[in-house]
């Protein structure tokens, strides 16, 4: 059984893609790294996917889906960060009411960093195929007030990234992915 965390590496225009979507790729990598460094071994597999060609029509996501859809019942949740890694506020979540209640309990664990909101739906071109087929999905929600200042511009460089805010985003990604991967049962569908 698989808990998938992801971001994409497909900067193709004038910027370096540090924010869009290097930040999402980084926090996904960091989540798995932190879990490993802490010596934690969840019941399910944590899988990192660094998507490609999202900007060119989601070609990488479609290819991955085609290669793995026969095992769709083994995918517990698919998570994608693609809206920068600014100060996080919670997660967008797509899933049934029982799964949403579980997600709210998980997010309550993040009260010490004040990131507890569960929004109505997950967003992510790269995880849409899975969510359409009933796999629960989550997307990081953060402060978007500066996102379009840098999105697809020459300003999308590493200087946009705030290490403290990225650490908070990585903490959210780590806690949510680990707890789901270590629960007794998969999220209900």
From TrEMBL:
GO terms for biological process: peptide catabolic process; proteolysis; thyroid hormone generation. Keywords: Carboxypeptidase, Endoplasmic reticulum, Glycoprotein, Golgi apparatus, Hydrolase, Lysosome, Metal-binding, Metalloprotease, Protease, Secreted, Signal, Zinc, Zymogen. The keyword Thylakoid does not apply. Residues 2-173 form the Peptidase M28 domain. It is found in: Endoplasmic reticulum; Golgi apparatus; Lysosome; Secreted. It comes from the Eukaryota. InterPro entries: CPQ, Peptidase_M28. Signal peptide: none annotated. One of its GO terms (molecular function) is metallodipeptidase activity. Homodimer. The monomeric form is inactive while the homodimer is active. Belongs to the peptidase M28 family. PANTHER family: CARBOXYPEPTIDASE Q (PTHR12053:SF3), PROTEASE FAMILY M28 PLASMA GLUTAMATE CARBOXYPEPTIDASE-RELATED (PTHR12053). This is Carboxypeptidase Q. It comes from Uria aalge.
């Amino acid at each position: 059984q698989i808990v998938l965390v992801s971001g994409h590496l497909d900067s193709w225009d004038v910027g370096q893609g540090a924010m869009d979507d290097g930040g999402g790729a980084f926090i996904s990598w960091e989540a798995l790294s932190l879990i490993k460094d802490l010596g934690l071994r969840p019941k399910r597999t944590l899988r990192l996917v660094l998507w490609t060609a999202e900007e060119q029509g989601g070609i990488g996501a479609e290819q991955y889906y085609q290669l793995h859809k026969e095992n769709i019942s083994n995918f517990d949740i698919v998570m994608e960060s693609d809206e920068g890694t600014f100060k996080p506020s919670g997660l967008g979540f797509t899933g049934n009411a029982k799964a949403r209640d579980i997600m709210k309990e998980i997010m309550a664990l993040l009260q010490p960093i004040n990131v507890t909101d569960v929004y109505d739906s997950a967003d992510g071109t790269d995880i849409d195929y899975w969510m359409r087929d009933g796999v629960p999905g989550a997307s990081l929600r953060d402060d978007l007030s500066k996102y379009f200042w840098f999105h697809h511009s020459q300003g999308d460089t590493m200087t946009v990234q705030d290490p403290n805010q990225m650490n908070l985003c990585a903490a959210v990604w780590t806690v949510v992915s680990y707890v789901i991967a270590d629960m007794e049962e998969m999220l209900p569908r």
